[in-house]
Structure formats: structure tokens, C-alpha cells
Design brief:
The complex is a heterodimer of chains A (317) and B (523). With 317 residues, chain A is mostly helical. Chain A has a domain of 183 residues: MetI-like (MetI-like fold, Orthogonal Bundle). Chain A contains 14 helices and no strands. In chain A, helix 5 crosses helix 8, helix 7 packs across helix 8 and helix 9 packs antiparallel against helix 10. Chain A starts with a helix and ends with a helix. Among the domains of chain B are: 144 residues, 3-Layer(aba) Sandwich (D-Maltodextrin-Binding Protein, domain 2); 211 residues, Dipeptide-binding Protein, Domain 3 (Dipeptide-binding Protein, domain 3). In chain B, the strands form 5 sheets. In chain B, strands 3, 10, 11, 12, 13, 14, 15, 16, 17, 18 and 19 form an 11-stranded mixed β-sheet that branches. In chain B, strands 6-7-9-8 form a 4-stranded antiparallel β-sheet, covered by helices on one side. Chain B is built from 15 helices and 21 strands. In chain B, helix 9 packs antiparallel against helix 11. Helix content of chain B is 28%, strand content 23%. Classes of the chains: A mainly alpha (317), B alpha+beta (523). At the A-B interface, helix 2, helix 3, helix 5, helix 7 and helix 8 of A face strand 2, helix 1, helix 6 and helix 12 of B.
Chain lengths: 317, 523
């Protein structure tokens, strides 16, 4: 197990280095001068002398190789640089934004699991019956409605018609826990709808598969009650693939909450990245991509390890 | 009946327990548990104005350009010697009065009661230090160029400062009245992010990327101002959500009302639309290569575009045709007979193309997909130019790429947005003057006649003579068409009726909306 983890970590480190290099190169190849973009924002009128001075201050007048060496050197020390826009350390900016996105993803995942697993089991246990058909239709609907449509619908209904929630925004938990959670609810639900549908379908499918296994028949034959059979012998064995899918979905949500964060004005990583790309804020884009990629890689690593814990066959192999 | 509830964060919406429970049920059991903890919805405490910004200001450096949202917010922290009134006339701000002994010299007398946010009095030394920082060699100040006109800045006494210009430059006084030349405390100028101003508010707290809250100073130099104790800025980058937040009562004022929403907003009970025409759209040409090196072809473009269509289709009617040169409305420089230099006339366009021997022009029009109205204008122009026989292909890259291509001259002609800078005809230098290549002006533009007129106009102190110079300039550009203008576009603010005394400045100065918080109050 340890050797497996060490090997995976080494592969992860190489991948992170490749991501760091690729994002640096791509950013510098893509047309668009950060200084011009910065100074021309909202009808600003770039003064050539000011632009030249800013380029010098930001180190953009140095040769690309020198900039790359400096970037790698900083990275090795855990320094992601400073934002072109606000001169704050990128790591500090990310540390402020990342928890908000993780909170959103975490809340959406918890909601999805709470809804998805019981409903998936319910659908499997009632295969072909009315409840199964209703859930099948509902999941198709949930998967076919884009998140931005759902988000807009939520705002229309709950903020403008019912007026029971703000239209969007963010208040720190420390300032007002209740308002914070209220504001989290709509975006988290919007994200959770699609993920719940995936989990329902996945759970239904794997539970149906496990229900056909010999050990389930054996468990029933030796007189175990059905809830105990389900809990101990079916659901536990069925959760492996569900967990894998959920983990992968969480990873993709790191970059996939852009629209939800935008629609609900949730100031997480996605909006931060969009702003950084628009303004050609190289250190911020590099930092966000690197941190996101690292998280994605780590998340997959954790899922693989968990999977091997849950499934003895994987552990043995 | 809904009740208005308030929270400590100053946001507000209407709710009651029954509605809340109904909503909870609709969402599904358990999903609204956190919301149940929050009876509190967002109700502004008395004395709080919540303003929805279109972007969170990247920084609040007093001298640097950081976007319009930052300009608005900085008005609460920083003030200059002068300011503009609602009609765009120059008024004293930190200066109590000023005089102009000769055409090159200005003497400013500072208010005796003007203090910075740290309680220190505003002195002539502070003025000198601030202006020296702006015009310094390594300065990144937005008005650095305008301050190159300064020859000397001298402190006559603690409350009097004298500025001598190298040449008479009437527009210089307008640079002082703009928001980008504030006076900061000379004792703390080492860090541009921590400079201290003399504005009416102090920053109480901020949540990066989310909001900034300001509290009124009690020692501001104008009695009775600012009128409201707290101003809270919240960033709502999405246009639709900004409108929803205003309709839901989460905020009191929103900026950049989308053009398609202006009519609906103006008809909504409890809301008022304030708008003004300051910014405009125009077309730049590549004058070094391609079909537009011939002024007749450029004039053909200028006459072929039906600007009314642009106003109607791209701006939902929230704009005004601009087929002349953008000059402050009502100013002596706006000569009526020169108002329409390039009226819509497709026949004239065809005959100009024929005269130029350019009946099969094929060209690429550069715009951007980042801003929908740039793209819409390009599409409308494509149709109009096709009607006079020009085949136009569109190039619509993202904004950063578009700027680069503009700076490098990789286009035939391009759609651009612009706006007034100082509200003086000298602003036209940015469009007609030669200089380093920039996406803002036509590539390769260098016209000695225009440069000479612009230079004379910039340094002419007699208004009547200036009027003649700028009239001559307009006649010159009517034929040479270094750029052609398209339309003014409206900029709108949605304001809840509970807000009183909030008034945006006139068309040319509408970017200085932050000054309106001095008198704004909530009922």
C-alpha cells in the first residue's frame, strides 16, 4: 500500500511540474499584453510611458527564459508570486477564495449524497415499479437542465417572486452564520441537482448489480433481515463505484462551478480565475491553475486509495 | 404581508415566517434548514446605502487607473483641489479658491478646515508632494501626461500653492478637477495601497472580491456632508443579477444598467433610472496598409453606416447618433453647422468608392466578442457596407487579443469604444493626434496639419480663438477621416426611491458618480 501511494505521489509531482510549465508557456503565447489590458479597462487610456514603467515593475520586460526561471525558482519555494492587479500574494488570494469554492462543492456533494444514495437504493429495490420510473424521469430532467438555467430559475422564484432569499451574494460565516448559509443554499442546490441525478443512477445500477450476487442470496438464506442485508452486504459493496464517480465529479466541479459562482455572485475560485484570465494576470492564472490541478490530482489519489480500502480485490492487485 | 427585516450586513429583502416556511417546503425537506436559521434577511439599517458595483475594485491606489468601479469607490476616500458640479463646471474642493494671475500660473488657497482621514490638516506641502508623485519620472499615474505641462510647483505658505505651467494649457485645470489627481497625506506616500486621502468617508471593512463598507467622517470640511452614515459597495459582475438585486431590494443603487433593461427599469414602481450620454463608439482605420489608406474610402465608410440602426439595435435606443466629432454638449466648441460631418448617405458612399477606384473593397473589421455591443455594431456595419458594395469579414477575438491586434495594426478597420477624459476639446488629441501606436487611434496616424491644430488648441488661452481652431480641426477631419464616430451610448444607474440626493454628473463627467455620495441619503 505504501509503495503504491509513493508511486502515485511521484507521478503526481511530475504532473504538477508539467502543468506549471504548460500554463506558463500557454499564457505567454496567447496574445494580449497584461499592462495594456489593465490600463484599458473600462475605457481607460493607456499612456505609453506609464505602460512601459508598469512593464518594468512587473518584470514583463525581461526575456521569457528569465521570467520562466524566476517563476520556477519562486515555485520551488512555495511562492506563487504577486497579483498584477492588487499586488497581493497570489497564495493569499487563493487561500481566501479556495475555501469558498470548496465549501460550495462540499455542500453540494453532501446534499447530493444525502439525496442520491437513498433514492438510488429506493429505485433499485423497486425496479420497474412506479417509483423507479418517476425517479428515472426526474434524473433525466435534472441532467438535461443546464445549471445556469436552474440557477436563474431559483433566483426568479425564491428571490424575486417569493422573496424568501437574497438574489445572490456572499457574507462571511464569521459575520453572520445564518445569512452565510442562506446564501450558500441556492448555489449549492443548483450544483447538487445534477450530481444527485448521477448518484441516483449510479447507486441504482450498482445496487441492482450487487443484489444479484451470491453473497446476498447467502445472507438472505441464513435469515438476515432485509434492512441488514441491504446495509451490510449490498450498499457497502455498491458504494465503491458511487464514491469513484462522486470523487471525479468533485474534481471536475473545481473548474465547473464557474457559471454557478457567477450567477449567484459567490466569490470563489472560478470567478477569480475568469477575472485573472480577462486581465492577463499571469501570476494569478498560474496560481489558480496549479492549485486546482494539484487538488484534482490529490483528490483522484485519495479516491483511488479509498477505493482500494473498500474493495479488497483492488488492494490485492 | 411581508415585513422588511434587516441584518448586520446591511442587505435587505422582504419576508415573513409563513412565506419562509412555504418556500422551505417547496425546496424539499431539509434543504432549507440553514435558511431557517436566518430570519434575517437583508434590510438596510437606517443610514446605509448599498451600491452594486459592476466589478470589485482591484485596488484603491489614488493615482492609478484600476477601472471605473475603483474610480467610483475612490471618490469616498480621496479628493482633489477642484471638482466638477452637476453640469460639469469646475468648482473648488480642497481648494477654497483659486486665481490665475497669468495664462501660465495658478494660485490655490486651501480650505482652512480640510483634513485628511488621519486628522492632519491638508497643506500646500501635501499638494506639492502629491503632484510631484503624479508627474515623477517613474510615475504610473493616470494623469501623468497632463502633468508634464507643469513647470514648477511652489509652496507659498502652508495653505497656498502656486503652479506654473510651461505653456498656457487651459485643459490643465480640468485635470485637477478630475478624480485622478487627488491630494494625499505627504507623510505616508511610500505604499500606494495605503495612502491617506481627504475624502468624506473612511474604509471600515472590506471582504475582498465581495464588498467594501465605508463610514462617514464627522470632520469632513463641508458642513452637513456626507449625508449618509454608511455606504456599502457590493460587487455584482453579472448584469442580470445586478438588476435582480435591485428589484429584490438587496441593493439601493446599481450601475451599468444593461441597455435592454433601461426601459423596464424606468417603468418599475419604486425605481428611478438616471442615465447620461458620455461614452461613444467609433471606428479606427489602418492607415499604413490595406484599403483604408485612401481617405475617400474612409469617407465612404463614414457615410455608409446608418447610425440610427446601431443605436436602435445595439443599444436598444439608449444612445444618440454621433456623425460628427464628440464635443461637450452646449460647450462653445460644439459648432452647430459642424455637428453632422458624415451623415448617412449611401449614394455618396458609392460615388466616393467609385472616385477612389475601390468598388470591390474587401476588408476585415476587427471588434471583440467580449463585449456584445462591439460585436453587434460590427455586424450592423457589415450589412450597411455590403449595401454600398464592400465585402467585410468580421474578426471577433477576446478583448485582450483585440487590444494586441489593435496596437500592432493587425486589422483593416476596427470598432472601438471611447469616452471623454477631461471634458475639453483637447481630449480629441487621443483620436486625431499622432503618437505611439495604440489600439485607441488609427494605426499609423500622423497628420501634421491635425497635430498643428491640436497643439495650437491645447495652448491657446483665449476661448474665442480656441473655438476657431477646433472648428478648423473639425473641417479638416471631415475630409481626411482619421477616425469616424458612430454614436453616444447611454450609461444608466438604477436607484431606489428611498435614496434621495443621488445625482450623477452631466454627460461628460458621468464617470465621477462617486461624488454623488456626498449628498445622497436614505429615507
Amino acid at each position: 500500500m505504501l509503495a503504491y501511494i509513493v508511486k502515485r505521489c511521484a507521478v503526481a509531482a511530475v504532473m504538477i511540474f508539467m502543468v506549471a510549465t504548460a500554463v506558463f508557456m500557454i499564457l505567454h503565447v496567447v496574445p494580449g499584453d497584461p499592462v495594456e489590458v489593465m490600463l484599458s479597462a473600462d475605457g481607460g487610456k493607456p499612456d505609453p510611458a506609464v505602460a512601459a514603467e508598469l512593464r518594468t515593475r512587473l518584470g514583463l520586460d525581461r526575456p521569457l527564459a528569465e521570467q520562466y526561471a524566476s517563476y520556477l525558482s519562486r515555485l520551488a519555494r512555495g511562492d506563487l508570486g504577486r497579483s498584477f492587479l492588487d499586488n497581493e500574494p497570489v497564495l493569499k488570494n487563493i487561500a481566501q477564495r479556495l475555501p469558498r469554492t470548496l465549501e460550495l462543492i462540499g455542500a453540494a456533494t453532501i446534499l447530493s449524497l444525502l439525496v442520491g444514495i437513498p433514492l438510488g437504493v429506493l429505485a433499485a429495490r423497486n425496479r420497474g415499479r412506479g417509483i423507479d420510473r418517476v425517479l428515472g424521469t426526474a434524473t433525466s430532467l435534472a441532467l438535461s437542465v443546464p445549471t445556469f438555467v436552474l440557477g436563474t430559475l431559483f433566483i426568479l422564484v425564491f428571490a424575486l417572486l417569493l422573496r424568501i432569499a437574497p438574489a445572490g451574494g456572499f457574507v462571511p460565516f464569521s459575520q453572520s452564520p445564518a445569512t452565510h448559509l442562506t446564501l450558500l443554499l441556492m448555489p449549492a442546490t443548483a450544483v447538487a441537482v445534477g450530481l444527485s441525478a448521477i448518484i441516483i443512477r449510479m447507486t441504482r445500477s450498482t445496487v441492482l448489480d450487487v443484489l444479484q450476487q451470491d453473497w446476498v442470496r447467502t445472507a438472505r438464506a441464513k435469515g438476515l433481515r432485509e434492512p441488514r442485508v441491504l446495509r451490510r452486504h449490498v450498499v457497502r459493496n455498491a458504494l465503491g463505484p458511487v464514491l469513484t464517480v462522486t470523487g471525479l465529479q468533485m474534481g471536475s466541479m473545481l473548474g465547473g462551478t464557474v457559471l454557478v459562482e457567477f450567477i449567484f455572485n459567490w466569490p470563489g475560485m472560478s470567478g477569480f480565475l475568469v477575472r485573472a484570465v480577462e486581465h492577463r494576470d499571469y501570476p494569478e492564472v498560474q496560481g489558480v491553475v496549479l492549485v486546482t490541478a494539484t487538488l484534482f490530482i490529490l483528490l483522484n489519489l485519495v479516491v483511488d486509495v479509498l477505493y482500494s480500502v473498500l474493495d479488497p480485490q483492488v488492494r490485492a492487485s | 404581508m411581508a415585513n422588511n427585516r434587516s441584518t448586520s450586513d446591511g442587505r435587505h429583502f422582504a419576508t415573513d415566517r409563513r412565506q419562509f416556511l412555504q418556500g422551505s417546503a417547496a425546496l424539499g425537506a431539509g434543504l432549507l434548514v440553514p435558511a431557517a436559521l436566518s430570519k434575517a434577511a437583508n434590510a438596510a439599517a437606517p443610514g446605509t446605502i448599498t451600491y452594486a458595483l459592476s466589478a470589485y475594485p482591484p485596488n484603491l491606489r489614488p493615482f492609478d487607473w484600476s477601472g471605473q468601479a475603483a474610480v467610483t469607490v475612490k471618490a469616498l476616500l480621496f479628493r482633489g483641489l477642484l471638482c466638477f458640479d452637476e453640469k460639469g463646471a469646475v468648482q473648488p474642493e480642497l481648494a477654497e479658491s483659486w486665481e490665475q494671475p497669468d495664462s501660465r500660473t495658478y494660485r490655490f488657497k486651501l480650505r482652512p478646515n480640510a483634513t485628511f482621514q488621519n486628522g492632519k490638516p491638508v497643506t500646500a506641502e501635501d499638494v506639492k508632494a502629491s503632484f510631484d508623485a503624479i508627474r515623477g519620472e517613474k510615475s504610473t499615474a493616470y494623469v501623468r501626461q497632463a502633468f508634464q505641462a507643469v513647470e514648477t510647483i511652489a509652496v507659498e505658505d502652508p495653505k497656498t500653492v502656486r503652479i506654473v505651467l510651461k505653456q498656457p494649457t487651459p485643459s490643465f485645470i480640468l485635470a485637477l478637477a478630475g478624480q485622478m489627481a487627488p491630494i494625499v497625506f505627504a507623510g505616508k506616500m511610500d505604499n500606494p495601497d495605503a495612502m491617506i486621502g481627504a475624502g468624506p468617508y473612511r474604509l471600515e471593512n472590506s471582504e475582498k472580491g465581495v464588498s467594501l463598507t465605508f463610514k462617514a467622517r464627522t470632520d469632513f470640511y463641508r458642513p452637513g456632508q456626507p449625508a449618509t452614515e454608511t455606504v456599502r459597495f457590493v460587487a455584482y459582475p453579472d448584469d442580470s443579477l445586478r438588476i435582480a438585486a435591485l428589484n429584490a431590494g438587496d441593493v439601493d443603487i446599481i450601475e451599468y444598467v444593461p441597455w435592454q433593461s433601461m426601459k423596464g427599469l424606468s417603468q418599475t414602481k419604486g425605481l428611478t433610472l438616471q442615465n447620461s450620454l458620455g461614452s461613444f463608439m467609433y471606428v479606427v482605420f489602418n492607415l499604413k496598409e490595406g484599403p483604408f489608406t485612401d481617405p475617400k474610402v474612409r469617407r465612404a465608410v463614414a457615410h455608409a453606416v446608418k447610425r440610427e440602426d446601431i443605436v436602435k439595435a445595439a443599444f436598444f435606443g439608449a444612445g444618440k447618433v454621433l456623425d460628427g466629432v464628440p464635443l461637450p454638449a452646449g460647450s462653445p466648441y460644439a459648432v452647430p453647422e459642424l455637428e453632422h460631418l458624415w451623415p448617412y448617405d449611401p449614394d455618396r458612399a458609392r460615388s466616393l468608392l467609385k472616385e477612389a477606384g475601390a468598388q470591390n473593397v474587401q476588408a476585415t473589421l476587427l471588434a471583440t466578442s467580449t463585449y456584445g455591443f462591439h460585436k453587434d455594431i460590427a455586424e450592423i456595419m457589415q450589412q450597411h457596407l455590403a449595401a454600398v458594395g464592400m465585402q467585410v469579414k468580421l474578426s471577433l477575438p477576446e478583448w485582450g487579443v483585440r487590444v494586441s491586434q489593435g496596437n500592432e495594426g493587425r486589422y483593416h478597420f476596427a470598432v472601438n469604444g471611447g469616452g471623454p477624459d477631461l471634458g475639453d476639446p483637447d481630449d480629441l488629441t487621443a483620436f486625431f493626434g499622432s503618437g505611439s501606436d495604440s489600439y485607441r487611434r488609427s494605426f499609423g496616424l500622423s497628420d501634421p496639419k491635425l497635430d498643428e491644430l491640436l497643439n495650437r488648441g491645447r495652448h491657446e488661452s483665449d476661448t474665442a480663438t480656441r473655438v476657431k481652431i477646433y472648428a478648423e480641426l473639425q473641417r479638416a477631419v471631415a475630409d481626411s477621416v482619421p477616425v469616424t464616430f458612430l454614436n453616444f451610448r447611454a450609461q444608466g444607474w438604477g436607484v431606489r426611491d428611498r435614496v434621495k440626493g443621488f445625482k450623477v454628473l452631466s454627460d461628460q463627467m458621468n464617470n465621477q458618480v462617486g461624488m454623488a455620495f456626498d449628498t445622497a441619503s436614505v429615507s
